[in-house]
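Quick review question:
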């Protein structure tokens, strides 16, 4: 592709989906990609700030405050303070610093002086929770911009379609949380159509463990790719820092490997351009 959007682990998921589609005689793969983004799957005090700015300290605010405290396992006083600060003492633009952990000094400087995505700079009259929701949609753009010419089956992510996104952006941000529920507005909308274990579940699977297994099984290959690759030769990554991360013994102890795997994706894409 002309620019990288997919992650390496999705190749395995795509193969499984294609096998199921083939077995079932399907012509199209429909997935739920982007749901966390579109349904504002966040635990941000910006939701409470929206409620404060819209209706003050009414019952809706206290209900949302208790719901967020339950989801985030955070005390009422802490959340109230964060909501007040977010509503009246901070910029309404979301704080989303770029991920530059393993980049070189020059690359970090280039990122720092580069243009921010326009969705990270909201108009002055936009509520902070709404601004955070819009910013969360940015990474979901890969679902609608990626064209996989080699895919065995065409696929679509209907949750990332414009009508669904704009409908969800009309929902007041504090209604996306409820006691024991994130993405609450979507859960409520389909409560009559889905079984309680799905409507009420509080956790779900994640590809993180799968990505960690790929990382652990391929450390030597990853080391060769990154330390002797296109990104390193172009001065874009911090070679010593990447080397130390890859040379640590034992299982992974934090999510730094996710950032390393992002570099692997970029390196593979850069090599393909040659």
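Suggested answer, residue by residue:
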């Amino acid at each position: 592709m002309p620019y990288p959007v997919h992650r390496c682990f999705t190749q395995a998921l795509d193969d499984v989906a294609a096998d199921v589609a083939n077995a079932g005689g399907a012509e199209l793969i429909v997935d739920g990609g982007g749901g966390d983004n579109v349904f504002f799957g966040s635990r941000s005090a910006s939701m409470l700030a929206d409620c404060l700015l819209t209706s003050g300290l009414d019952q809706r605010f206290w209900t949302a405050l208790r719901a967020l405290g339950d989801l985030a396992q955070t005390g009422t006083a802490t959340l109230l303070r964060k909501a007040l600060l977010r509503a009246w003492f901070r910029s309404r633009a979301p704080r989303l610093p770029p991920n530059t952990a393993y980049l070189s000094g020059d690359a970090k400087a280039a990122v720092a002086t580069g243009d921010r995505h326009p969705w990270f700079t909201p108009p002055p009259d936009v509520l902070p929770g709404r601004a955070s929701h819009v910013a969360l949609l940015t990474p979901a753009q890969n679902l609608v911009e990626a064209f996989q010419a080699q895919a065995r089956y065409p696929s679509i992510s209907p949750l990332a379609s414009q009508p669904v996104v704009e409908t969800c952006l009309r929902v007041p941000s504090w209604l996306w949380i409820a006691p024991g529920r994130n993405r609450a507005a979507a859960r409520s909308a389909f409560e009559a159509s889905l079984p309680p274990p799905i409507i009420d579940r509080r956790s779900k699977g994640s590809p993180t463990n799968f990505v960690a297994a790929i990382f652990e099984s391929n450390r030597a290959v990853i080391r060769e790719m990154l330390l002797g690759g296109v990104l390193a030769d172009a001065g874009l990554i911090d070679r010593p820092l990447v080397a130390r991360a890859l040379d640590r013994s034992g299982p992974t102890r934090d999510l730094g490997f996710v950032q390393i795997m992002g570099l692997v994706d970029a390196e593979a894409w850069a090599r393909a351009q040659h």
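Why it works: Strands lie at 29-30, 155-156, 177-178, 181-182. The mean pLDDT is 90.
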